[in-house]
Design brief:
Length: 118
């Protein structure tokens, strides 16, 4: 991985830690546009996006690249538990999801921020 990409990943990680999600997402989007197989970028994206649907898409990309990624498996399982077959989330499920959801990523802990509709 090139130094520029590694620095951008570190920048995005720090932005997420400081709850500057939109800035982190902009950096991560640029990375995955250049390299759609960047597992770290997808994992950080899964932990930065605000909608469960976007988190699910990012997690699926992590699992596409590493089917044994335990954090991604846990996150997908949790999303699937809350996702209704009609393709919608009930408000109470979203609140429950966002209030209880934490995922370890290395030594950092990220939390998906509350969406405007939650």
């Amino acid at each position: 991985m090139e130094d520029r990409t590694q620095q951008q990943l570190e920048d995005a990680r720090m932005l997420i830690q400081n709850e500057q999600y939109d800035e982190a997402i902009s950096i991560l989007q640029a990375i995955v546009l250049r390299d759609r197989d960047n597992l770290q970028a997808w994992w950080l994206m899964a932990n930065a996006v605000e909608s469960p649907e976007d988190a699910r898409m990012a997690v699926k990309n992590v699992l596409r690249l590493d089917p044994n990624h335990s954090g991604a498996r846990q996150m997908l399982q949790r999303l699937n538990e809350l996702y209704l077959t009609c393709g919608d989330f009930h408000a109470w499920n979203i609140r429950r999801f966002f209030s209880r959801r934490r995922v370890a990523a290395g030594s950092l802990r990220f939390r998906i921020r509350r969406g405007a509709g939650a």
